[in-house]
């Protein structure tokens, strides 16, 4: 079980890990399990400015397609290139190798975030 | 509450994700759809298909009745033979797609779980003097599919079934359990479907998994079943066809035998031009990995041209595939695209099936 004490979650199932002004973004283990086999991610270009709560991309599994929402405000500094060839990393390691974005100038102002316990309660796991 | 197959407890114990399908709580996947899909393409997979319905027709008029119910020519079947066909309504629309087995005492018709109440009512209305019985609850169905499936089942079977021809079935014993062993499937791979008493299903399931471990046999859910059948170009009732779809319009004209004489829907089907049906069923490949899904619009030259009936990501071919139902007037060489949630993806028409198993495999 991953140590999720530094992770914060949205009600739309993204996670964010904030370190200083940098934030890393992905989706929760619960979300990947619900989606099943991920086969495609539509992610923003480096330099895109994201606002907390705004749509930043989409994820598709064999079962369903779903929009992705920015947990915090920031500017896209890096997109996980490994996901282009291996989108299944979102399934196998959602909190590690399955990360999606790194944001610069990240701030959580106006963001509605839950800690692990709050999120776990939300999804009824 | 949804129904359960006799193997439900096995699925839960194996950690399957359970979803409702056709009124049954069924395993969607045990591991991942990709892993199960690849197991069937390269080794072998075990499926619980006990949700499928079985109806038996017996008595002097069984042939007459089944012949009127289905489009294909049942009269040509000898005992142990099977065929695929559809049941049509009077307007020529498809009530269900079925497999018909010729048994010593009559016929067994295998129907889709979701269609069972409708089919049984329909069959009852058209069963005439023939005795017909819905035996779906008493019969369990397991499928072993993949390049190693034949060797595995043959090794457990009291009879030599490796040479059993496609769409043929024999009554035998598998792992000491009485079973009808049928050389049929819904995956595009070689293999068998095993019809057994519901009470024997768990014992056979366990024996197959134990005996198949060395061949890499794993349990597979409905998720992989869907990706496998779509690669193999096989239709799914409710998605690719329904009560308003005639067999020609979903490329199942080969199951329609008008020359056999009158059957339900034959008059309506005789009025259609098999070469130019109301709708045209095509396979399409999409650029990129985004999946086209049931009901999404197909566009030709900026105009609506039809809709996607089934779509998935092909793990074998590594790209997105779909089937579509096009308006009959769309030219064969039209450039198509699919509106996937507002993003337009170019689509190339390709022959079905998308995947054909290697010869001799």
Description:
The complex is a heterodimer of chains A (125) and B (361). Chain A is of the alpha+beta class and 125 residues long. Chain A has one domain (11-114): RNA polymerase II/Efflux pump adaptor protein, barrel-sandwich hybrid domain (OB fold (Dihydrolipoamide Acetyltransferase, E2P)). Chain A contains four helices and nine strands. Chain A has helices at residues 29-35, 82-85, 89-92, 116-123, and strands at residues 7-9, 14-19, 22-27, 38-42, 49-50, 55-61, 65-69, 73-79, 101-107. A six-stranded antiparallel sheet of chain A has the order 1-2-3-9-8-5. In chain A, strands 4-6-7 form a three-stranded antiparallel sheet. In chain A, a hairpin with a 2-residue loop joins strand 2 (14-19) and strand 3. Chain A is globular, with a radius of gyration of 13 Å. Chain A starts with 6 loop residues before the first strand and ends with a helix. With 361 residues, chain B is of the alpha+beta class. Among the domains of chain B are: 8-52 and 137-231, Gyrase A, domain 2, CATH 3.30.1360; 53-134, 2-Layer Sandwich (Alpha-Beta Plaits), CATH 3.30.70. Helices cover 19% and strands 34% of the residues of chain B. Chain B contains eight helices and 19 strands. Chain B has a six-stranded mixed sheet with strand order 10-11-12-9-3-13, sandwiched between helices. Chain B is globular and about 60 Å long. The mean pLDDT of chain B is 96. The interface between A and B is medium-sized, with 14 and 17 residues.
């Amino acid at each position: 079980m991953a140590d999720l004490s530094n992770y914060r979650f949205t009600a739309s199932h993204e996670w964010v890990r904030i370190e200083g002004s940098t934030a890393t973004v992905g989706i929760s283990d619960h979300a990947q399990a619900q989606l099943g086999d991920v086969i495609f991610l539509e992610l923003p270009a480096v330099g895109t400015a994201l606002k907390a709560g705004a749509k930043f991309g989409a994820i598709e599994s064999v079962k369903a397609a779903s929009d992705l929402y920015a947990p915090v405000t920031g500017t896209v500094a890096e997109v996980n290139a490994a996901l282009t060839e291996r989108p299944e990393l979102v399934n196998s390691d959602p909190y590690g190798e399955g990360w999606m974005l790194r944001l610069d100038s990240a701030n959580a102002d106006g963001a509605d975030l839950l800690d692990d316990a709050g999120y776990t309660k939300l999804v009824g796991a | 509450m949804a129904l359960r197959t006799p193997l439900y407890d096995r699925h839960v114990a194996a950690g399957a994700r359970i979803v409702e399908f056709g009124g049954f709580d069924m395993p969607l996947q045990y591991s991942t759809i990709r892993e199960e899909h690849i197991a069937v393409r390269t080794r072998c997979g075990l499926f619980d298909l006990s949700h499928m319905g079985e109806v038996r027709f017996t008595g002097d008029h069984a042939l007459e009745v089944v012949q009127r119910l289905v489009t294909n020519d049942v009269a040509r079947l000898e005992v142990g033979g099977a065929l695929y066909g559809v049941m049509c309504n009077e307007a020529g629309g498809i009530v269900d797609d079925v497999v018909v087995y010729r048994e010593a005492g009559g016929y067994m018709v295998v129907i889709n779980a979701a269609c069972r109440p409708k089919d049984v009512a329909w069959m009852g209305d058209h069963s005439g003097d023939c005795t017909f019985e819905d035996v779906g609850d008493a019969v369990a169905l397991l499928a072993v599919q993949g390049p190693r499936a034949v060797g595995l089942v043959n090794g457990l079977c009291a009879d030599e079934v490796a040479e059993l021809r496609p769409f043929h079935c024999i009554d035998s014993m598998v792992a000491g359990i009485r079973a009808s062993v049928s050389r049929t499937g819904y995956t595009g791979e070689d293999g068998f479907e095993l019809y057994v008493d519901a009470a024997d299903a768990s014992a056979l399931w366990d024996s197959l998994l134990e005996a198949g471990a060395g061949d890499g046999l794993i349990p597979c859910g409905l998720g992989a079943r869907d990706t496998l059948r779509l690669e193999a170009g096989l239709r799914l009732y409710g998605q690719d066809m329904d009560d308003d779809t005639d067999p020609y319009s979903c490329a199942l004209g080969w199951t329609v035998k008008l020359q056999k004489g009158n059957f339900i829907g034959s008059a309506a089907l005789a009025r259609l031009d098999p070469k130019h049906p109301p709708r045209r069923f095509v396979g399409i490949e999409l650029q990129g990995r985004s999946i086209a899904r049931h009901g999404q619009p197909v566009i030709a030259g900026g105009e609506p041209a039809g809709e996607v009936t089934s779509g998935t990501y092909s793990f074998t071919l590594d790209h997105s595939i779909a089937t579509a139902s096009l308006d009959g007037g769309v030219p064969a060489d039209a450039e198509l695209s699919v509106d996937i949630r507002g993003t337009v993806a170019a689509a190339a028409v390709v022959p079905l099936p998308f995947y054909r198993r290697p010869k001799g495999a």
